[in-house]
Amino acid sequence: SSLCCVLSSNHNHCCQWGGARFVEMPKLYQLTLQKASAITHAVYGNFSAPKAQEVIVARYKTIELLRPDESGKVQSILAQEVFGVIRDIRPFRLTGASRDYIVVASDSGRIVILEYDEKKNIFDKVHQETFGKTGCRRIVPGQYLAVDPKGRSVMIGAIEKQKFVYILNRDAANRLTISSPLEAHKSYTLVYATCGMDVGFENPLFASIELGYEEVDRDPNAEPPQKMLTMYEMDLGLNHVTRRFADAVDHSAHALIAVPGGVDGPSGVLVCCENCLVYKKQNHPDIVCAIPRRLEMAQEKGLLIVAHATHKLKDFFFFLIQSEYGDLYKVTLSHDEDQVNEVQVKYFDTIPLANALCVLKTGFLFAAAEFGNHALFQFQGIGTDEDDPMCTSSHPHGAQALVAFKPRALKNLMLYDEMPSLSPMIDMKVLDATGEGKPQLYALCGRGPRSSMRVLRHGLGVTEMAVSELPGKPNAVWTVKATMTDEFDRYIVVSFIDVTLVLSIGDTVEEVLDSGFLATAPSLLIQLMADDSYVQVHPTGIRHLLPRRTNEWRVPGQKRIVTAAANERQVVIALSGGEILYFEIDESHTLNEVAKRDMNYEVLCLAVQPIPENRMRASFMAVGGVDNTIRILSLDRERPLKQLSAQALQSPAESVCLAEMRNLGQAEDVHTLFLAIGLSSGILIRSVVDFVTGTLSDQRSRFLGNKSVKLHKVTVQGLPAMLALSAKPWLCYNFQGKYHCTPMNYEQLEYASSFASEQCPEGFVAISGNTLRIISTERLGDLFHQNTMPLAYTPRRFVPLPPAVLPTAGHGAGDPIMLALLEADHNAYNEETKREIRAALKKIRLTRTVDDDLDDVKEEDEDEDLPETQVGTFKAGEGKWGSCVRIVNPSNLSTIFKLDLDIDEAAVCLTVCYFSQLANQPCLVVGTVFNMTLYPRHAPKATIKTYMYDERYHLQLIHSTPLDDVPLCLFPFEGRLLASVGRCLRIYELGKRKLLRKCEYKNIPEGIMWIHVKGDKIYTADLRESFHIFKYRRSDNQLFVMADDSAPRWMTCASVLDSSTIAGADKFDNFFIARIPEECRGDEGGDFSGLRLKADTMYLTGQTPKLDHVVQFHVGDSVTALEKTTLSQGGGELICYSTMLGAVGAFYPFASREEVDFFQHLEMFMRSEKPPLCGRDHMMYRSYHFPVQNCVDGDLCEQYVTLPLDKQKVIASELDRTPAEIIKKLEDLRNKLL
């Protein structure tokens, strides 16, 4: 049916949406604005250099290399979209090698081996071997990877039946080689876990937990099958795989941990079962050790292990395992040679639940959280405390041993760095709730006690290191080092209207009087020269400070210096009247005048090119004047100050900057000298300067704000960058091969300079008003900065609240819009019950001896309540809920009002409704359920509660209406309320004691989860059966379906674009746009049989017109919210979406046919020139469930920048462009969105 849709959708509808009136469908450009922040897999290794401590993380469809820097902050080195699903990832290294390769198992039916290339900063595909069909299938390998610790072979397995083993080796040129696959298949066998066992240099062994179901398949009454631990031996001599050994394990076995072998340990494997660990090895007795449990855990409840990490040093090793409660345990084995005597499991610490744990050799633990922020912990100890609760295998009760403990504050670990993560993003809205003039993104994130509401603003996060008042209003600031080779700055020089202040940087910043700088005049420029002398330019001359003497050059006559610029060897000044003088430092350390030129107009700004590598001097300078031009002049000895090129401007230049910004890994001969011009009208213009001739080309402009733009050279990550100061500061820098120009979330700055000290290795010193500030940027490459407000339970939905009293003109127009949030958690208690449980647990003492009783009395007072964000919350069981309704003020992210619901009552949906009975008085309507079970979805009692609120936003209950089923969605409708209750759609009216049911529609397939009303149509989305468009016929008080969708879809969210177009997304990561067909746009529809049947006969007999599908696109991540909006003032309209894994993206409609053609062709060439990293075909990936239609993949197009130059030129010539023009088009389109 989906193919029919594609074929039948060539209607000539006018596209109302997106402003462009094509005679066809909207063509969209998809772009990820903020990449997904969830981590599904994480592995530790040395990928870039032999001793580098690095972690590679897979974020479902991107692969990213992370490296903690010297200060312990985790830096993202490279992130790449793979256009496929990464199902498993493992590092391996060949014997004797010093760096790791990466094996990736994905949905491409291929095994791929990657290597990180540090010079080019890319992942290189070393091998790609096809073995099966694409997609995540049951019997196609890709779910499990296991690697031999000595790097000789790798096994890739499916959930059922198939396993392949590949032999890895190296050839004479030291390149990696891979063999043909060797089969280790077994039919009717389910696999639960695999691992590569450490056997030293014997034949590689792979262990897996398997369950054979052949008997049960044939005869349902047969004995239930037994789970087995099976070992596969890869015989390197005979070149094939054999099953070497199989042994029964407990039915709850779910994870395997390989024990170091060879010279490091006893080899073998630890099998994780419910409540216990079992050590297993061929010809060795099983050793069983129970796991200590939390005090509040029910005895019949099993304890599973969710993550583990091995730490191996020269002479000892231990394992860290994490339970489903978040508790970490340290597991140690005591062994003689190959005989294990005892297994010990000791409580270590409690951290949030992790998808993966990595122990770094530098004493850090990287925890990739399941939900919420990821963390880097530093080891404070390795769990050697004798008092920690511990279980050993020699306990008389064996696996049944019960050792209880209470979680405690972190003792062995210390939180060192947090990586913000929006995952899971449950709901998102774009609105300017705080009245800033630019919309913010409000996102509901996280789960349980680690939930939060986050406000995203476009821009880099800024950390304020110091703010100090100055004795007046400064107008400029510089930092200088003591010598060219120094790492940190020595002086901060601040210039005022008539004096210059010099501050020295040490442990404190204090004024110095003997620096040699002229203090009685303002400074125009401070520069450290190549011979470690300083140059200070002031209005009446130039002061040159050498180590033993000071030279002074005076301005001739009555003129004054108006502006100056310099690099390490050359100084250029402009005098009043338009004269330019050019100086150079010679071998004898004196400043010589080389040339002068009269420009015949007043000069506003100057810039000098930085000295290129291996050259003595720079060849260009730029000068901007009152005649609205920028001219490039030569600084060559042969023709000093000769004009080489010029550019006319629309308004006077406020500042100009020549900066060399070269990308990492770019070829040496790429021209990267940029001329940046800041105009007084708030526009930043950037052009490329030809290295040889000085001509200008490839001009790009961007509006930064309503104030003139001042430019300042800075360094970011050791590379040159530029600050552009307008109404907000903007930072222009290169990061991971791309040029970024991003605002900083900070107030207006007037002047800035780079700053480096021991406390702040990379930052900026800036002036704002009469204060001096030291600031640093938080995470480069991020497009949004987050402000976080913690919540009590998992947030479900939120709505903006209109003010209780409509504001009169002028009053309250700038007040923030309050937000009403619903929070609810299943399997949880409400706050009051939690307090009672905590009090009861405090009274229970886990004492050992009589002496401990005396100690315990002391400890009782110190027993603080631990934060739930660390230790999690109590598990209450099925049908138990904790829930609240919260009103939030977005300007300071504070709770104005919080309404805790009854025990086991959960709020599930809400809306704001103006009932016709209460004119101008908004009501908050909330649907709640009691003791609801999730599967099947059933609640013994459900209600719709109607609240009024006053100007303090305190809720007062008007009444509560009992329901016979679960309310799924509410929406206002013509002064009444539309409610989706179970499998019905109802219209309610406000009554005195409860809501009164006025109309009902019963034939709904599963339950309506989204409603929107526009004009006379009611747009709804069914949980399972996609869109249904209803109409309400007033004369008969009847609802009927006027159109529905041909394809069944499990909907997650939807949005109305215009009266006949709706966008939606489903659980299988698809985004689509559907259109109401012509034939039912005007007519009444419904029941024409004349029988006046109450049933909707057209719909029941399947005769309703079907929606046309206009756009299809596989996003590759479940979309949780969609909204048609603009993200910036004057920006284009677009569809903004948020996803489960914490990504934010946009679909932007192309404005012209020419744009569509260009990007469709670019996408086509990119598909062939840069095939996805993991071997999936890009077109197939974007058409996972429905053929991709009318949507260009911007994420693929943007990878153009990372191609080698020769490939860029090939594609550009095919498109009749230059590479610079293509990159400019990509940048322009991105700038239209934000």
Question: Can you walk through the features of this model?
Answer:
This protein has 1234 residues and is mainly beta. Strands 86-87-88-1-89 form a 5-stranded mixed beta sheet. Strand 43 and strand 44 form a beta hairpin. The radius of gyration is 34 Å and the shape is globular.
Fill in the keyword field for this structure:
disordered N terminus; 1234 residues; mainly beta; five-stranded antiparallel beta sheet; 89 strands; five-stranded mixed beta sheet; 11 helices
Question: Outline of this structure?
Answer:
The protein is mainly β and 1234 residues long.
Task: Describe how the helices and strands are arranged.
Layout: H1 2-8, E1 28-34, E2 41-45, E3 54-58, E4 62-68, E5 74-81, E6 86-92, E7 101-106, E8 110-117, E9 122-130, E10 144-147, E11 153-157, E12 163-170, E13 176-178, E14 182-183, E15 189-197, E16 205-212, H2 214-218, E17 227-235, E18 240-248, E19 255-258, E20 269-273, E21 276-281, E22 284-290, E23 293-294, E24 305-312, E25 317-323, E26 327-336, E27 339-350, E28 354-360, E29 364-369, E30 374-379, E31 390-392, E32 404-405, E33 413-419, E34 425-431, E35 440-445, E36 452-458, E37 462-469, E38 476-481, E39 489-495, E40 500-505, E41 509-511, E42 525-528, E43 534-538, E44 541-545, E45 550-554, E46 561-566, E47 570-575, E48 579-585, E49 591-598, E50 603-608, E51 620-625, E52 629-634, E53 643-648, E54 653-660, E55 673-679, E56 683-689, E57 696-703, E58 710-716, E59 719-725, E60 729-735, E61 738-743, E62 751-755, E63 763-768, E64 771-777, E65 784-790, E66 795-801, E67 818-826, H3 831-843, H4 850-862, H5 868-871, E68 881-889, E69 894-900, E70 905-913, E71 923-930, E72 941-949, E73 955-963, E74 967-973, E75 976-981, ...
Parallel strand pairs: 1-89, 23-32
Antiparallel strand pairs: 1-88, 2-3, 3-4, 4-5, 6-7, 7-8, 8-9, 10-11, 11-12, 12-13, 12-14, 15-16, 16-17, 17-18, 19-20, 20-21, 21-22, 24-25, 25-26, 26-27, 27-31, 28-29, 29-30, 30-33, 34-35, 35-36, 36-65, 37-64, 38-39, 39-40, 40-41, 42-43, 43-44, 44-45, 46-47, 47-48, 48-49, 50-51, 51-52, 52-53, ...
